[in-house]
Design brief:
Protein name: Leucine-rich repeat-containing protein 59
Organism: Menidia menidia (Atlantic silverside)
Number of helices: 6
Keywords: Coiled coil, Endoplasmic reticulum, Leucine-rich repeat, Membrane, Microsome, Nucleus, Repeat, Signal-anchor, Transmembrane, Transmembrane helix
Number of strands: 6
Subcellular location: Endoplasmic reticulum membrane; Microsome membrane; Nucleus envelope
Structural class: mainly alpha
Helix content: 55-70%
Shape: rod-shaped
Membrane topology: Single-pass type II membrane protein
Radius of gyration: 72 Å
Strand order of the largest sheet: 1-2-3-4-5-6
Order of helices and strands: EEHEEEEHHHHH
Length: about 325
C-alpha cells in the first residue's frame, strides 16, 4: 500500500465490526488486506479518490454495509453481485453512468443511494431522489427490479446468441459432414476407377499372354507340319546313287585320258616332235589303232546305235519320272 501512505495499519481503523477508511486520500482499495478481517461487516471508504474497485473486492462477501460516497468511481466490478450479504450501499456523488448486470443478484440489498451520479435516463428514473430513508429503500427495490429486467434481457440476448451460435455450429457441422461425405464418395470413386483400371490391365495382360501362347502353339504346329512334310519328302525322294557319281567320275577320267592321248597323238603326227624317239611308239600305236578301227567300223557303228538307243530310253524314263 505504498500509494495509501496514510493507512499504516488496518487494525488501527477497525472498531468492533466497523472498518473506517474514510478521508484517507485512498486511490486504491486494499482488498486483499481487507479480506483478512472477515468480522468487519461495515466498511466506510467515503471521501477518498478511488477511481475503481479491484476484482478482488468482490471476494469480500462478509460485507453488509458499504459506503463509497464522494469518490471518483466511473464503474463497478462485473462480479459485484457476489456480495450477497450486502444490505446497505452508498454510492452518492460518484461518476457512475450504469451498473453491472450482476447488481440484480444483490437480493439482500435494502438501502441504496445513487444521487449526484450521471446515470443514464432509465436507471436515473428507477433510482429516484433518495432524499430520506424511505426513498433510499424504494431506490434499492426499484433499481434491483430494473436491473433484474436488464439481466433477463441480457440472458435472453445471450440465449439468442447461443442459439444462433448453436445453429451456426450445426450448419457448420452439416457442411462438414457433407464435405466429408463428398470426400469419401470421391475417394470411393477413385478406388473403384483404380480397381477397374487394374482389372483392365490384368485382362489385357492375360489376353496378350493367351495370344502369345496361341501363336506359340500355331508356330509349333506349323513347324511340326513342316517337319512331317520334310520327312515325307525325304522318304519319297530316293537317295543319290553313289554308283552314278562313280560312273560319271570314271567317264570324266576316261574322257580326259582320251583327250590326253589324242593331244599326244596330234603332237606326234603334226608337230616337229614326231621325229623324236618318244613319238615312235605313239605313231605305231596310232597306226595300229586306225587299222583296227577300219576293220571294226561296222561293229563300232552297231555299238554306237545301241548306245544311242540306250541313251534315248534313259532320257525318256527320266522325263516320265519327273512328270
Amino acid at each position: 500500500m505504498s500509494k495509501n501512505s496514510k493507512v499504516v495499519n488496518l487494525k488501527d481503523k477497525i472498531s468492533g465490526n466497523e472498518m473506517d477508511l474514510s478521508l484517507c486520500n485512498l486511490t486504491e482499495v486494499p482488498a486483499r488486506e481487507l479480506a483478512l478481517f472477515p468480522k468487519a461487516t461495515v466498511l466506510d471508504l467515503s471521501c477518498n479518490n478511488i477511481i475503481l474497485l479491484p476484482p478482488e473486492f468482490c471476494s469480500l462477501t462478509h460485507l453488509m454495509k458499504l459506503d463509497l460516497s464522494k469518490n471518483q468511481l466511473t464503474c463497478l466490478p462485473d462480479d459485484l453481485g457476489s456480495l450477497v450479504n450486502l444490505q446497505h450501499l452508498d454510492l452518492y456523488n460518484n461518476k457512475l453512468t450504469v451498473l453491472p448486470v450482476s447488481f440484480s443478484q444483490l437480493r439482500s440489498l435494502k438501502w441504496l443511494d445513487l444521487k449526484d451520479n450521471p446515470l443514464e435516463p432509465t436507471l436515473a428514473k428507477a433510482a429516484g431522489d433518495c432524499l430520506d430513508e424511505k426513498q433510499c429503500k424504494q431506490c434499492a427495490s426499484k433499481v434491483l427490479h430494473h436491473m433484474s429486467a436488464i439481466h433477463e434481457e441480457v440472458d435472453r440476448a445471450r440465449e439468442k446468441r447461443l442459439l444462433r451460435e448453436k445453429e451456426l455450429e450445426k450448419k457448420r457441422e452439416a457442411k462438414q459432414r457433407e464435405r466429408e461425405a463428398r470426400e469419401r464418395e470421391a475417394r470411393k470413386r477413385e478406388k473403384a476407377e483404380e480397381k477397374e483400371k487394374r482389372r483392365k490391365e490384368y485382362n489385357a495382360q492375360m489376353a496378350a499372354a493367351a495370344a502369345q501362347e496361341q501363336q506359340k502353339k500355331k508356330n509349333e504346329e506349323r513347324k511340326k507340319k513342316n517337319g512331317q512334310a520334310a520327312d515325307k519328302k525325304v522318304s519319297v525322294e530316293p537317295p543319290p546313287k553313289p554308283r552314278r557319281s562313280l560312273i560319271g567320275l570314271m567317264f570324266k577320267l576316261l574322257l580326259m585320258l582320251i583327250l590326253g592321248l589324242a593331244a599326244a597323238a596330234a603332237a606326234c603326227r603334226l608337230t616337229d616332235v614326231r621325229q623324236e624317239a618318244i613319238c615312235a611308239p605313239v605313231n605305231a600305236a596310232l597306226d595300229d589303232g586306225l587299222a583296227w578301227a577300219g576293220q571294226q567300223e561296222g561293229a563300232l557303228r552297231q555299238l554306237l546305235q545301241r548306245l544311242s538307243a540306250a541313251a534315248r530310253e534313259l532320257l525318256e524314263s527320266t522325263q516320265a519320272s519327273k512328270n
